[in-house]
Write a structure and sequence with these properties.
alpha+beta, N-terminal domain of MutM-like DNA repair proteins, Helicase, Ruva Protein, domain 3, 5-stranded mixed sheet, 7 helices, 11 strands, 23% strand, elongated
């Protein structure tokens, strides 16, 4: 599933456009008007009804492209168009005359002979057209890069929970944007075992964990995310992994073989030497 760095990478591409290579070049979305919309898989649209969606979105223009957690937010003239990519979603800007790919689920025809398509092989992704994005994102926890998320604030957040660190960090209502990849990598950088109880983490280690989360997310963004599956594209952060999907390989820090366990139905990777339990 695309996590914060992958969604940020896609948002940057839509926000800034692409000039190379020539076959992939496309304009930036801000400023472009939407001429019409077409749903090719009706369940992709969570709200409103298709009929209302077609009527409301036609004629609106893209004003800005942003992100909240793993949600991509396209602010329009009147509404906000929100996408959650889930397992296999992707957003592509294409020429109108380009052949339609088999897994396009939602198509927006844009001025200038372009279209924005939501491609989603597994059909788990969703789109919302809302007047207030808080209708969709209101229950998310703070952004990892938020200036308001200081080390003392983060420490108090951990102190209020007895949950294990791995499932807590995956909880989007606790902290927005982390998934399996970046949680495993951040816990390794902080030297914390994924089964450690959150309220047992002292203030200095909480500060180290927050710093590790931010540094690993920033590294992921700089590398345009991770391309570890056929649904990802363009990134190379997978070449920087220290623990994720490296079961049995030597830890890049100490040489101890990386372990894999299942926590909360999620495969979890850690170094038993660098991240001691207890």
């Amino acid at each position: 599933m695309p996590e914060l760095p992958e969604v940020e990478t896609i948002a940057n591409g839509l926000r800034l456009g692409c000039s190379a290579p020539a076959e992939a070049a496309h304009p930036a979305l801000p400023g472009l008007h939407i001429l019409s919309a077409r749903l090719l898989w009706e369940r992709t649209l969570a709200t409103p009804t298709p009929a209302e969606f077609y009527t409301r979105i036609a004629g609106q223009a893209f004003e800005s492209i942003g992100r909240r957690g793993k949600f991509l937010l396209a602010r329009l003239t009147q509404d906000t168009l929100i996408f959650h990519l889930r397992m296999s979603g992707d957003l592509l800007v294409e020429r109108l005359e380009a052949p339609m790919a088999p897994h396009h689920r939602l198509v927006l025809e844009l001025e200038g002979g372009w279209r924005l398509t939501f491609n989603d092989t597994r059909k788990f992704g969703r789109a919302w057209l809302v007047s207030d994005p808080e209708q969709v994102t209101g229950k998310l926890g703070p952004e990892p890069f938020s200036p308001a998320l200081s080390a003392p604030v983060f420490y108090q957040m951990l102190q209020r929970s007895r949950r294990q660190l791995k499932p807590l960090l995956l909880d989007q209502s606790f902290l927005a944007g982390l998934g399996n990849i970046y949680t495993d990598e951040a816990l390794h950088r902080a030297g914390l075992h994924p089964l450690r109880a959150a309220d047992s983490v002292p203030a200095d280690q909480a500060e180290a964990l927050l710093g590790a989360i931010r540094s690993v997310l920033q590294a992921g963004i700089q590398h345009h995310g991770a391309s570890i599956d056929w649904v990802y594209r363009g990134g190379d952060f997978q070449n920087q992994f220290y623990v994720y999907q490296r079961t049995g390989a030597p830890c890049k820090t100490c040489g101890t073989p990386i372990c894999r366990v299942v926590i909360g139905q999620r495969g979890t990777h850690f170094c038993p030497h660098c991240q001691p339990e207890g």
